[in-house]
Design goal:
single chain; alpha/beta; Spore Coat Polysaccharide Biosynthesis Protein SpsA, Chain A; 2 domains; 7-stranded mixed β-sheet; 11 strands; 28% helix; globular
Length: 232
């Protein structure tokens, strides 16, 4: 049981360029941080929940949920350029969770719910994965466009994929999964940061495209608010 213990971390720094104080913006009376905390606390597969931030105001949101713990973020992992890897390096220095399962839940995708979290953790455990990434399927049109895309190298353009993808019919192309930024699941080991996202033993958790709109700007925020209104 201890080996399969599931730890949730909700990263919510204070700075946000797209929307000021984004993580404290409210939908239906609850901030994005509160929505993420509620979903994590309601997910039966999650054993411990941590809120990670550099902001006292954001960390204070944890007090509204029984048992939620806090991680005070250092400057490096709270900077504009900080990656999820930087956040986890700071978090895992704070506490040793070796051999545990860690789910990284983004508050900027509030349409996901506790059932998504529960189902994804069960899949992760069942297939003994090292990495799980929440995704949605690209529709046929986008799928084809991606496979037939180019990258620019100086003055030249080159196929992003193999040349034969350019003239393959779309039925023969592989199906693309696009990460939606809702959550990631990792198995923590001694070599975790050496591989980080370990694609040798990884799986995508497929969601509907509108189940996890990632809020990057005000248009996204308005769109998410509309979905909440429709479903309440």
């Amino acid at each position: 049981m201890e080996k399969n213990k599931v730890i949730a971390i909700i990263p919510a720094r204070s700075g946000s360029k797209g929307i000021k104080n984004k993580n404290l913006r409210k939908i239906n009376g609850q901030s994005l941080v509160q929505i993420a905390l509620r979903n994590a606390c309601f997910a039966k597969e999650i054993n411990e929940v941590y809120l990670s931030s550099d902001s006292k105001k954001i960390l204070a949101q944890a007090k509204k949920f029984l048992g939620v713990k806090i991680h005070k973020r250092d400057k490096k992992s709270a900077s504009d350029s900080a990656s999820s890897k930087d956040v986890l390096q700071s978090f895992l220095k704070f506490k040793n969770f070796q051999n545990k399962i860690l789910i990284y839940i983004q508050p900027s995708s509030p349409l996901k719910n506790s059932e998504h979290l529960n189902r994804s953790i069960k899949i992760f455990k069942k297939y003994k994965m090292n990495t799980l990434i929440s995704c949605y399927k690209a529709d046929n049109n986008l799928n084809e466009k991606i496979f037939k895309s180019f990258v620019k190298e100086k003055k030249n353009i080159k196929p992003l994929f193999k040349k034969n993808s350019l003239y393959s019919n779309r039925q023969g192309l592989k199906k693309i999964l696009i990460p939606n930024g809702a959550f990631f699941i990792f198995r923590i080991s001694k070599q975790f940061f050496k591989n980080y996202i370990n694609f040798k033993n990884s799986i995508g958790y497929i969601m509907k495209k509108n189940d996890a709109i990632d809020i990057n700007d005000y248009d996204d925020f308005k769109k998410v608010k509309k979905f909440f209104r429709k479903n309440t």
